[in-house]
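Memo to structure team: turn this sequence into structure tokens by end of day. - J.P.
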Amino acid sequence: MALTTPHVANFNLFGETGDLPDVVHCETIFDRASLHDWELTPHRHTRLHQIILVTSGGGLARFDDKREDLAANRLANVPAGVIHGFSFAPETQGFVVTLASEFLDENLPAKEGLRRYLNAAYAVDADDAAADLMARIFHEFAERRFARAQVLRSLCGALLGVAARAGAEQSETQAPRDLNPLARKFGELREEHYRQHWKVRDYARALGVGPTHLSRALRAASGLSAAQLIQERLIQEARRNLVFTNLPISTISYTLGFEDPAYFSRVFTAASGVSPKQFRTRLSGERDDGADPRGLRPKKTA
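Reply from structure team:
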């Protein structure tokens, strides 16, 4: 089943438009996925962070253009803003914990560095601590006892710590991006204004710093200059649209704030090494294993 759609859905919580009404939202994989024939099509959550634990069964996950195995006892970390889709085997069991982005902002001290791992989507083998925390969170969530909210906050904070530790251990040989406060604020502004093609000076003015200071701070945090990060976000969104939608390339260019599709194509080609058309063609071509590279399941044969 291909994951290409006319547009990428942007949900708060599985298609619901209201804000998260509780400290945390808990739902089983079975309860949600069984309603959709075990396929959750590509979507993203603007202000929600999810941690998913498969306890039995399994499936495949898609995080932007990356595929991850979700066998039993695998833990998936899904940050806000990442396009993700799932294809589960029927009767798969597991837990889904959903937290508002504000919860992470309030409960993860910047100096401890957890966000640099939690900002990435990944799937890792879960340890006993993760499984125990998931079970305790679901139990406390279902109860209506005194101090419920405080207990849930504490347990969810511990779950985020376990997920970040697993991500750090998986990335020991990599140099993760450490988002300092200025870099985080820049990232938030970039999400609001990248389609408007703000320049470095526009972000610097909004953040109350000079362009040179901003670029130095961002390079120290990410290894990239402000200008490179601005372009990176545009190209990332372009790739997402090319992979997950069937919109014409000209329409994609307009939605990204480009007035001239030919200019968009030149910018994309310079950044990616291939044209938008070539990029889409490569991803939609046949693979040796018979799978659609945009989807999660092998193509059926007669």
